[in-house]
Protein: Molybdopterin molybdenumtransferase
Organism: Hamadaea flava
Amino acid sequence: MTALPVDWASARRTVYARAAARSAAIAEVGLADADGLTLAEPLVARTPLPAFTTASVDGWVLRGDGPWRVAGRVLAGQRAPELAVDGTAMEIATGAMVPVGATTILRLEHGELRDDVVSGTPKAEPEWRVPGEECAQDDELLPAGTPITPGVVGLAASCGYDTLLARRAPRAALLVFGDELLDAGLPGDGRVRDALGPSLPAALRRLGAHIDGFTRVPDTLEAHVDGLRRAVDAGNDLICTTGGTMHGPVDYLHGALRELGAEYAVNTVAVRPGFPMLIAQLPGGQFVAGLPGNPQSALVALVSLVVPLLAGLTGRPFPTPAQAVLAEGIPGRGDFTHLALVRQDYPGGPAHPVSHVGSAMLRGLAQSAGFAVVPPGETGNRGDQVELVELP
Ligand SMILES: Nc1nc2c(c(=O)[nH]1)N[C@H]1C(S)=C(S)[C@@H](COP(=O)(O)OP(=O)(O)OC[C@H]3O[C@@H](n4cnc5c(N)ncnc54)[C@H](O)[C@@H]3O)O[C@H]1N2
Ligand code: MOO
């Protein structure tokens, strides 16, 4: 009944390519609203930076040999008049435009002012920044597909952008299956707390999706079909579901996908844990990400397939995993890729396997940086450099 699992690395590539072919619409957004979106065009400098010769210290801007008679002052924001006569100076502020004719700048702390005459020894190199030091006009500063961070927004503003062409955040919905799930209070008597409804929307937001919350869907085929239809009608590009990926007595995801005419991009992946994960596409092109119900497995599916899916949808590059050095050995999982939770004491530090890593558990995951990747047929040995798929 279960489909043949596909190789983990190929599944990620397949999903990325499918999503990239349907990347999100491009919109012109104001700089203040652009954080978290993705550049849909290269960021090209609209001006040299700095745009004019700019004082980098407070002091006096000088012409010729000293001492210098101070003939005026130029502040940041002003158009500087020419410094036309040798032996004259102007008081100048950091960030001010350097007057044409200036020879150098004398720092405040290196000069002495008596009446209106300044003397002192300037540094050998003029303390100003010349146009084009940071970039020339038309330099490509960042390629299309770059995630827009506060740093990108600041750079765009610096070089003259008022708006950016950006791919909007894909809209996502989360449907949580499982009549055994509780929203509050203590688990027991066959009921378990829903660990995914309250956590996955936050994870999806960190991955660049726009999502409001989650919807609990009863364990019937009709409710599954209805839940998926409603999520499509609400304009979602991606519908994540949790649970019901197998073929148990109340697992209806596959049946619902069949009824809606969905086509699988990936149906079960050769990875442990989390193998029943899937990505399907509905006739309107929307993606369904079926995450297994076991909570750790759901996160494995998220980092394995939803991360490349969102990268494709937003026009970002394929998310190549980070690298880490194993602090201890990790067993392989035969023909399957093993994603093993690891802790790092500092970013980029050695990867320590953690305990409490059953697929139904989150105790190990909550203290982990991500999953170390042990490829099929291999074992992870202490000191090995491995891929590290980070948790959001
Ligand atoms: N006959 C077989 N049974 C199972 C196999 C198998 O190979 N043969 N694989 C197991 C594996 S591995 C996984 S993973 C699960 C995947 O099952 P489903 O995706 O259909 O998930 P459910 O059956 O709905 O739930 C599994 C498990 O997870 C708990 N769960 C579900 N949702 C949540 C949630 N939101 N928060 C916390 N816990 C949740 C649920 O109560 C179950 O315990 O299938 C195995 N079975
Ligand atoms: O593959 Mo399941 O996802 O081990 O828990």
Notes: The longest strand covers residues 68-74. The longest helix spans residues 295-313.
